[in-house]
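Quick start: what a row looks like.
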Amino acid sequence: QLQASGGGLVQAGGSLRLSCAASGRTLSRNTMAWFRQVPGKEREFVAAVSWGGNTAYSDSVKDRFTISRDYNKNTISLQMNSLKAEDTAVYYCAATNPSYGGLSRYHLEYKNWGQGTEVTVSS
């Protein structure tokens, strides 16, 4: 089970750090990712980190967001800097099955999802 936290209200240009904790089993062999969604739109890929530590980002967040994982704590984080109003969304953490070794941007590759944490950026 995945539990996302850290969302909130922040002014444009500010920063937030999201965390996602996994309980029940280790996710050290899974690719982990963050997606986001606004009402009426499809879920959008944000960033992913493979079990080996490789990362991928969407063009819209590259150079502003950083995804990382802590194998000991069984968590991933998303450091979000220089936030913009268009970053406003509900952010979800997700995990692939352990056998998946890639860095997918496709939400159907992710089989386990957290409940989401809301991020609101005021302009």
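That is the whole record. The mean pLDDT is 94. The first strand starts at residue 2 and ends at 5.
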